[in-house]
Amino acid sequence: MTDLSATTTPLIARVRAILLNPAEEWPVIAAEPDDTAGLFTRYALPLAAIGPVCTFLHGQLFGYGMLGVTWKPSLLGGLAGMVSSYVVALAGLYVLALIVDFVAPKFDGQAGRGPALKLVVHGATASFLAGFAQLLPGLGILGLLGLYSFYLFYTGATPLMKVPQAKALSFTAVTVVSALVVSIVAGAVSRPVIGLFGGAPGLSDSGEVSGKLTVPGMGAVDLDRMKAASAQMEADSKKPPIPAAQLQALLPAAIGAYQRTATESTGAGVIGSSAQGTYSAADRSFTLRIVDMAALGGIAGFGAALGVEQNKEDASGYEKTGTVDGHMQTEAWRQGDHNGKFGVVLGRFSIEAEGSAQSIDELKAAVAAIDPGKLASLGS
């Protein structure tokens, strides 16, 4: 029988190191022998499977829903989507490595197929882990983790491809845009990444990144806040997930005219835990959900640092995502059937209310019914 610990332990250690201490881990990766087969089999293959597998499981177990509309893919359709997205993701890594190998000398770096593949595969770690966002309802905010990959590419440009720090930002811009183009060509765009960006963040004497860079259409990216979010992730990684029962105990028995009619809690190991309650009044009903994102709680900090913002509006309603008072918020409302959702991220916790109500204000009041102080004490 194969000893799984012999392979999973180094994998987990590498993932943890590249996410929490990229400046220290990139030189270690650069010094390792080039091993394309080993890099794929021991690192890319298991991590690239996270998104497709979680998407498949979510579809079969929960189906998909948005503002009152629900659907569930067929078993064969789900399997076909899982396999095709997995294969395309792996092929995309190799194609992007070829591009990085070609582009690096244009920025006074050094060409090298092995280093390019190391940069692409390890730099995509955050995007791989963002696939966990598809596993359980209420974990959608984890998708922001994928945006951290552009920071990993930036910090790895010099150690891996020998691109001078003065040109690392421009090199990263080309790499990220190339990744987007590869995804579009492959027909597998899973989320918008970032376009071209300019500006020059400062460098301290120790070589650490700091300051801000400007992303057209998104505003300023605060690298200091990104480092702070990474530090928060490291701190939270040393704390165990909150037991689901403790989260469930925070759900109030009533919210205004709405009475709690059902409760449910789920534990997902190191990924975190969640609890939700169903609240009903007359013909209206919504779900209030609390999610402990555990070690991934710093993801919202990445979103705030990147200035993530999205707004859509038409005659039937609106959707918007952004940062309010330093916290990521999501909000959507459909006028016709009075259906919507409102969510906020407080540190390692996500609170979201979704369903039918008289107005979006009732959903906001439901989220506000969860005491932030009590949440903070659970995570301390």
From TrEMBL:
<feature type="transmembrane region" description="Helical">
    <location>
        <begin position="43"/>
        <end position="63"/>
    </location>
</feature>
<feature type="transmembrane region" description="Helical">
    <location>
        <begin position="169"/>
        <end position="189"/>
    </location>
</feature>
<keyword id="KW-1133">Transmembrane helix</keyword>
<feature type="transmembrane region" description="Helical">
    <location>
        <begin position="83"/>
        <end position="104"/>
    </location>
</feature>
<keyword id="KW-0812">Transmembrane</keyword>
<keyword id="KW-0472">Membrane</keyword>
<protein>
    <submittedName>
        <fullName>Yip1 family protein</fullName>
    </submittedName>
</protein>
<dbReference type="Pfam" id="PF04893">
    <property type="entry name" value="Yip1"/>
</dbReference>
<feature type="transmembrane region" description="Helical">
    <location>
        <begin position="139"/>
        <end position="157"/>
    </location>
</feature>
<dbReference type="InterPro" id="IPR006977">
    <property type="entry name" value="Yip1_dom"/>
</dbReference>
<feature type="domain" description="Yip1">
    <location>
        <begin position="17"/>
        <end position="185"/>
    </location>
</feature>
